[in-house]
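Researcher: Here's the sequence for the chain we discussed earlier.
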Amino acid sequence: MILCRCWETFLIILVVYSAWVSPFEFGFIRKPTGALAAVDNVVNAFFAVDIILTFFVAYLDRMTYLLEDDPKRIAWRYTTSWFVLDVASTIPSEFARKILPPNLRSYGFFNMLRLWRLRRVSSLFARYVNNGVCVLSAVYLYMRLMLCCMIINLCSAIYHYFVLLLKRLANVFT
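Model: Thanks. This is the structure I predict for it:
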């Protein structure tokens, strides 16, 4: 149980990294290179490991309130819910750019799929609130504030991206 909590906490740190870096990469980087690309791929690898581990984690059945530990039911539930988007958000952007047609090779699109990982933080805090854990209320509020800051940064990065795009278009037509 403690190992599971440590893994979730580590993944939350990686989610915060993804949520912080992705908007800036979307707005200002055409193609990932160097250390930033390497770190992004390491983060993607940890989330790929988490996808595999999710197939072995029991869940609470909402109808019976029993812990479901049947591997087939766990796999079925995961593949019919979050699996596709989890895999899509873990695909390295360099690989996606190589296999997709030219009109779909936008680095920003695959980069923004990483924000799907924010769902993990939201579901973790929802579980804490549902269990009545009040000790974490300060942490919960802090993380919500951080999430709001990340969303503001995302909007700012998108705004700056479009301003740069408009400037480039203006230069093309002059």
